[in-house]
Specification:
By secondary structure, the protein is mainly alpha-helical. 72% of the residues lie in helices and 3% in strands. The chain has a two-stranded antiparallel sheet with strand order 1-2. α1 packs parallel to α3. It is elongated and about 55 Å long. The chain starts with a helix and ends with a strand.
């Protein structure tokens, strides 16, 4: 059975990443972030996105396996706890996507390295 601690840890981690992404976006726009920190944040965001998506996919398979036995107490608990884990994993994937998006820098028109199309560039 998937313990409740999996859903709790994934949710807390997702909340922490969303908060960090919000502050990182502000710091990147003010140009107060080192290239190493922005690269680390980008790789953490990508890994959280991939980890959350794979956890969600695995737990969906787990939940679907026990969906046909909802009348029994143990399989219904597995479905409920597995569904909580799926939701928490999707939150983690969304937080990873937000962190990855926070690493984008809006291009300035007066800079040489700015984007000509007006689209944001990676940090």
């Amino acid at each position: 059975m998937v313990p409740w601690s999996v859903a709790i840890v994934l949710t807390v981690l997702a909340i922490a990443v969303v908060i960090y992404a919000r502050f990182l976006s502000q710091r990147i726009n003010e140009r107060r972030v080192s290239p190493q920190e922005s690269l680390a944040a980008l790789s953490v965001g990508k890994s959280m996105l991939m980890t959350g998506a794979s956890f969600a996919g695995a737990h969906v398979v787990y939940v679907m396996r026990f969906m046909q036995h909802l009348n029994a107490p143990l399989p219904s608990a597995r479905v409920i706890q597995g569904t909580a884990a799926v939701i928490a994993a999707l939150l983690l994937a969304g937080a990873g996507a937000l962190l990855e998006r926070a690493c984008l820098v809006k291009g300035d028109d007066d800079e040489q390295g700015g984007s000509e199309t007006g689209e944001p560039e990676p940090a």
